[in-house]
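<context>
A single protein, sequence plus fold
<sample>
Here is the protein in question:
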Amino acid sequence: MKRLRLSILVMLLVCSCQEKKSVQLKEGSWWAKMQVSENEILPFNLDVTKNNGHYVFKVKNGEERVSVDEIAINGDSIIIKMPVFEGYIAGTFSDTEIIGDFIKESLDRVVPFTATFGERPRFDSSKPPLTNISGIWETVFDYDTGNPYMAKGIFVQNDEKVTGTFRTTTGDYRYLEGVVDGDSLKLSTFDGAHAFLFVANATDSTLDGHFYSGNHSVEKFMARRNEGYELPDANSLTFLRKDFERFDFSFPDVNGNVVGMGDEAFKQKVVLVQIMGTWCPNCLDETKFYVDYLKKNPHPDLKMIALAFEYAKTKEKAFEGIKRLKDRVGVPYPILLAQFGTSSKLKANEKLPMLNHVLSYPTTIYIDKKGKVRKIHTGFNGPATGEKYEAFKIDFEETVSDLLSE
């Protein structure tokens, strides 16, 4: 059924023999929603402008602005391709409405999408907030399963409006924005890759709710206020197994050349190896940081390389995603294809058996000039984490500087 809907939408767009209508989207503020369950919608705001005849959408999540400029229109059909990521919105539109689906083909996922023109709050709130959730929250997700995981909620509330994020040991849940409506907390984000909705009953000391990832996953979560709570050290979670002396790899680049840690280019160099995926927003945040750092701090003894673990179903599609990331972000270092067809961490560990586990995309491995692993940093605290992001930048710069000076 999903593939049938997709085929119909694509046919509507590409069929040149159909009568084309002169339909123009209204410029200004729009309100969008995704149907993540029978009873829950994930809302977000966006602005639509036109630049030299081409539409540009800006998706708004708290302080974040995601610019979307790959928009194809044929008659009243539209495809909105997300920046860097594989997902896209396909549907039909009038001047004040877009109706369609958010589609991720490689994962066979389709989420109903609607956007309407006009200024409107992200969430409707009809009741004054009964609590203020500003502060730190010790959180556990999936607590009713055999695989619970911890997180740190970091929130700021002004009147009913809330911004912040959840940090986990593998990264953060991006810029969340929402409200406290009476005793109900509602938070959402859409970044072009992930569509996240959090709803919870909120008191002064507890949160009890559900986390929706698109319409394919629902997790329960509970949180308690704990201003002193901290997650485990990101530098202690992943390590080189005792039966291995070095970290090694050998994978193809976009030109089909096999690149390995033993290559001449890496000898007597400080090497940073980024384990990542082009589908991963935290990886994108980290990649942007690395690109900026390398641009501002070029050094002949510093090399960087990325190993991509892709869920694209074919090697060709996986390399398309890698090339798209390199072109859109201006990545100057090689990105090798380590795996395609799945982003399974268990499968990733088969490709990198020298690690105790691949716990997170992204993970960065710091290797000194003698080829010795000096540090492995699991996950990435992106800009949405505020102080933690600033602390990471300082630690990163100090670590690289120390390794280069040896």
In short: The chain has three domains: 2-117, 135-225, 250-405.
